[in-house]
Amino acid sequence: MLAKEQMFVMIVYMNRAVKYRAYPTTEQSVMFAKTFGCCRKIYNLMLSDKIESYKATGKFPTVTPAKYKKDYPYLKEVDSLALANKQMDLQAAFRNTFSKSRKKKNGFPKFKSAKHSRKSYTTNNQKGTVAIIDNQYIKLPKIGKVKAVIHRIPDDRWVIKSATVSQESDGKYYISVLFEFEDIANTYVVDKNNAIGLDYASDGLYVDNNGNVGTNHKYYRESHDKLAKSQRRLLRMQGSKKHEIKSNNYLKQLRKVNKIHRHIANQRLDNLHKISTEIANQYDVVCVESLNMKSMSNKGFGNGKATLDNGYGMFLSMLEYKLSDRNKYLVKVNKWFPSSQICHCCGTIHPEMKDLAIRKMVCDCGLTMNRDQNAAINILNEGLRLLTEVA
Questions:
Q1: Which of 42, 112, 259, 356 could form a disulfide with 170 if both were Cys (CB 3.0 to 4.6 A apart)?
Q2: What pTM value is reported for the model?
Q3: Which runs of E-coded beta strand occur in the chain?
Q4: Domain map of the chain by residue range?
């Protein structure tokens, strides 16, 4: 086994967000709703003026929220920093659209819909305007103290930078507080023997190089019958048809449907967090494939529900930041690397393994193994090779 050797110590500034469940009063809920609406309104106004000015002059002007407060006095009732952050969001959207450095450009910014846009806003901390009080409340500008479950108490050296208030589809409120702190990064030579390779598996999230399967849960399918029954009941109520006035019973049933969706998402997130934390704690190097999960979930593959139900993309994101926090490595192997076609024993390429119906690798060298485990071993070997080249 290779020992972990300390090389140097470096102080870096890191950001970390903690999401707390909030329980606002009725008055605070109304203020949140006003702020959500004003943020959406100011974004649409600024975007509209930019488009109109471009049609007239050929240039996109710089617009600020202050320009509209005279014509729309209700904008003064909400947090001005929330509106200013929407201006920053619009500027970022234009940069992403017209930036030459981006390999893949985003589309032109779109107007935010009152029906479909996410209900959230971000405010910055200015000399204590955002604070955690008595480990029971979160203080926000224009809102005051909001009761919250402070499940994680920040360290004294953590400085609050901003807070994002959001309301999910099931009606629950959350406040995500962003902290900045100094961290001592210890760079060391990792133990390459303490490594694992993961191959994506539609049924089970992944298969590692030892043949272990990630998870047996398919949370969407497990709640499918309950969800379908609730959705059928929703379709029978007044408001299900287009342009039809939504009844109170419809809105009540809609919240029940959204609650089931939120429960499924929470189950999936909880499971992925547990698995990714276990791997990050146990291994120094994790080798995976850089797959395009969006393409794999389309109709051509025929298993879109299973792919999306796995949440493999979220799983890789969790692994990446958790390994980084522990000064460990996530190595991504190119998606075009033929991991499923190569015999890990002799290196022979088997083109017939392109057929996903063939579940076993059978080689002339005598190897007979599950195709996913063989692919995981190849991913591990390739990832360690790439890590050695970089080092």
A1: 259
A2: 0.81
A3: 6-23, 119-124, 131-133, 137-140, 144-149, 159-167, 173-188, 195-201, 205-208, 285-289, 329-333, 360-362, 368-370
A4: 11-188, 195-390
